[in-house]
Amino acid sequence: MNKQKNKNQQNQAEKKEQTTQTESNLTRWHIILGDMLEKLLSPVNITVETDFSVMSKPPRGDILLIRRDTPQWTRHQLELLPDGIRDTKADYILVEFKCTESVNKKAITQAVAYDFFYRNVQDSLDDSRIQTFILSSITPQKKIRERAGYTQQIMPGVFKSINFMVEPVQLISINDLSDSAHNQYIKCFASKKKEKEKAFEELIETGNIETNAELFFIFSGLWNIFNKKHKGAEIMEKRGYTPEDVMNIGKEMHAFFMASLKVDDVIKRFSPEDILSKFEPEKRLSGLKPEERLSGLKPEERLSGLSIKEIESFLEKKKKNEN
């Protein structure tokens, strides 16, 4: 009785998780993920392509191609790549991204087909240079995962199949990846609200996305889309979001934030040194009296830069004024 009750509860939890994201299926999420990864990874010599051909002729796959442009992964590259992808030695990586639907037989078969056809097209590449992944926002159902042979867990959230037909394709469950810093970029696409929020908070707290304006706008846009905190959400959902939508929503939210920002907020966020470093020396001292500008300086520092004649002239005038 208890076993049946637990099984029913598990099935209900799985169904609930699969419906956590209600965005329109018209949104081509692999394009948005690819746009984010392109801006994130291109500075460290990793090429990202979307909608590339897996055969010499159509069809084209709803997948990403991540191509390493260096002989081996570099430290800077590894800091941006999630578990599974960062652990492969392959330099041509195919990613089948499932965002709003769970992994099923069709998705697995499709990923295996993409892998097979791409290897045939790239006949000049050794098999070890190509690796295919299914990247799933929603936690794959255990029964589906086990039927496909994904029982070998390499690390949290990363599975390898023992089925020789499926073996070329590894499975990554975004919800189940560790909280390591290199997983946070991908975990922004997690279906579980708790995991998604932790990822966004981590990226904001560390300031990892603030140095790149485009990335900042993308993550800001994604956050507002996932939380439906932007204008025209209903219309955009019906027609499907584009990378341009994500960027524009991020820019709008940033402009709104900057307009509401107060001086005290800036002072709390940055140190005096950080703020003053953005101004020319003349502007830093603007409005101060001469004695205030020299306050805190040693006598030799105050006289630094003056010639002996200038100093003597000043002393003579001072003596006359005192007499």
Low-confidence stretches: 17-24
Mean pLDDT: 83
**Dominant shape:** elongated
Placed side by side, the strands forming the largest sheet appear as 1-2-3-4-7-6-5
Helix/strand order: HHEEHEHEHEEEHHHHHHHHHHH
Helical residues, percent: 40-55%
Number of domains: 2
Portion in strands: 5-15%
What oligomeric state do the depicted chains represent? single chain
Distance between the termini: 107 Å
Number of helices: 16
Tell me the number of strands.
7
Structural notes for this entry:
This protein is of the alpha/beta class. It folds into 2 domains: 9-259, no CATH class; 286-322, no CATH class. The chain contains 16 helices and 7 strands. It has helices at 2-18, 29-41, 75-78, 105-121, 142-147, 184-187, 193-206, 213-226, 233-239, 243-259, 263-269, 272-276, 281-284, 290-293, 299-303, 308-322; strands at 46-50, 63-68, 92-98, 130-136, 152-155, 158-160, 169-173. Strands 1-2-3-4-7-6-5 form a 7-stranded mixed beta sheet. β3, α4 and β4 form a beta-alpha-beta unit. α8 crosses α10 (243-259). The longest helix has 17 residues, at 2-18. Mean pLDDT is 83; it is low at 17-24.
Provide the descriptors you would attach to this structure in a database record:
single chain; 2 domains; seven-stranded mixed beta sheet; 323 residues
